Structures are given as C-alpha cells and as structure tokens.
Amino acid sequence: YPLRRAKNINTFLAQASKVFPFHIDVISGQEEARLIYQGVAHYIHHDENRLVIDIGGGSTELIIGKHFKHKLLSSRNMGCVSYTKQFFADGIINEKRFNKAQIKAEQELEVIFANYISTGWQSVVGTSGTIKSILAMLSANDPDQKNITLERLLELKTQFLAAKTIDNLLIEGLSPERQVSICGGLAILIAIFQLFDITEMDYSDFSLREGLLHEMQQKLALKDIRTNTIANLSERNTIDKVHAQRVANTADWLFLQVQKEWQLDSLDNHQLLVWAAQLHEVGLGINSSGLHKHSAYVVENSQLPGFTQQQQTLLSCMIRFYRKRIRLEESPTLLSVP
C-alpha cells in the first residue's frame, strides 16, 4: 500500500527521521503520476497524445500527455498487492474472483472515464514491474511478442485459472517475487483494456525513477517546476501580484534578519515562506471574511505539481496562521510533520 495513505504517516516520518540519515519526501498520487509521465516522455518520443499506465502495489496511475506536457493525471486506489489481498487472499484463483476484481477496477476508473475518452490518445505505453512481468510471460514462448494485446491478456488469464492457486502459477517469465501479487495486477490491466477499448500497449522501462532524476536535474539547473506551479495558481485566482510580491519581499527580509539567530538553515523552508506570502490572498475569490482560512483551504486542496505532501501541508499552514493566534489544534497534521 502507498505510504501516503497511512493514517499515521507523519508519526512514522517523525520517527524515521531520527534513524534515517536522509530527508524523506512523500509525494501525492497526482505528483507520482506527473513524475511517471516525465520519466516516459524524456526517453520515448511521440508526436501525438499518449496514454501512460503504471500499475503499482497499492495504486495505479493513468496519464494522458503530448510531448513533455501532461494533459490529464489520475492516481486510482487499486494496485496489484491490494487487489490480490482483497480478491485472492487465500491463494485460490477462479473465474468469479477474477470477475469481481475486474468489476471493482472498472468502478474505480468510472470517475475518470469520460474525461479520458474525450481527450483521447493515439498510443498506449505501460510501465512498472507488474506490466513488465506480464509482458515477460507473454513473450516467454514468443520472442517476437513486443507489446501487450487484450487477446493475449485473456489467454494469460486462462492459464491463471487453470493453475487454480497462486502457488501453482509456475509460468515461464514470472519471478517468485511477482508471483504472489500478479493476479491483482492482471485483473486491473484487463479491466483497463476492456473499459478504455485498448487494442495494444507498448512497454517502457522508464518511469517514476527517471522522472524524479530529471526533476532533480531541473532543480539543480534552477528550473524548479514549483515556481511555475505558484505562478499558475496565482494566475487562476487573479491575485494582486504587485501586493503579493510586496508581502513576499517583506517576509523574505524578515527571514534573513532572524535566520542566523534562530538557526533557520533550510533553504527550502525559506522558499516556502516566500511562496506562502505570494499566495496569502489566493482565497479572496471565496470571501474576504476569513481570508486566511479560505486561502489555506485552496492551497491544501489544489493540485500542486512539484510539491511533496509535507511541503503542501507547511505551505497551507503558513497561510492559515499568518493572521491571529496560531492554533495548532486546528491543524493536527502540522504537529507531526518532521
């Protein structure tokens, strides 16, 4: 299951930070989807819309984009591990269980179906270990099999049903590590193919890791996507940019005056303060009364490409408490952010 869905995630991160020598960032499902697409886009080039699919252990990401720009992002709460535990917990494989898993996956996808069909795509690319394992099984006896089709997926499903149990899934191309969770992954992939009427899918080894590496390279080159995210959010909410920048400049000056004395060494937190100041009136379109609360709500619940969950929480809290007394009980998640 994704760490981001854990109820005690911030408690875990606080404890982990005491023993782990590196900072831990937890990304949202939307951010994971964006990074997956960037990983594919920077290594595989298409001139038309493409649908990218990544089936993980606890979530499945679906992205439509063109060149380096995504158009639609979605992360659904269904994965090979979670679905195998839900529908094949005792290791028994049969038609009824497969159908239940596929129906559940289709229901999970219904909410995005209309927008994705309306946007459309001309090619489909699959990533992740689950899809790689499925392709390995399909091509084990056919080296010329370079892509995945619905027909071959249904043939593979028949092989799974014939095995009757997960322990008996001794199929060439399937590793022991993947064997225990592959049933849920196959059910999800068949559901996606059938619901979106996909005829064939190519595979890419490039995914989240490559997208993250590219993002880090961009930051080192001072091309932080978060700057564009803040600018776009400001633009969409018609913020008084001149006033917002005056407030940001003041916050920046105050930070520098106390930075040494208060031992404020985090450059990232310094930048978050400046961005919070730039967005402090982002909720003005809702109501001028209780502006700080409305602005914090907008920031907390918006899609902010480039920001981790912790960064988005801190950004929202700085805006929430820039006026009046700080009431930490109103933001319990802030108390456990490491």
UniProtKB/TrEMBL annotation:
Segments forming domain Ppx/GppA phosphatase N-terminal: 3-218
Domain Ppx/GppA phosphatase C-terminal intervals: 225-333
GO MF annotation list: exopolyphosphatase activity
Gene3D superfamilies, sorted: 3.30.420.40, Exopolyphosphatase. Domain 2, Hypothetical protein af1432
InterPro entries: ATPase_NBD (IPR043129), GppA/Ppx_hydrolase (IPR050273), Ppx_GppA_C (IPR048950), Ppx_GppA_N (IPR003695)
GO BP, one annotated term: polyphosphate catabolic process
Protein name, entry field: Uncharacterized protein
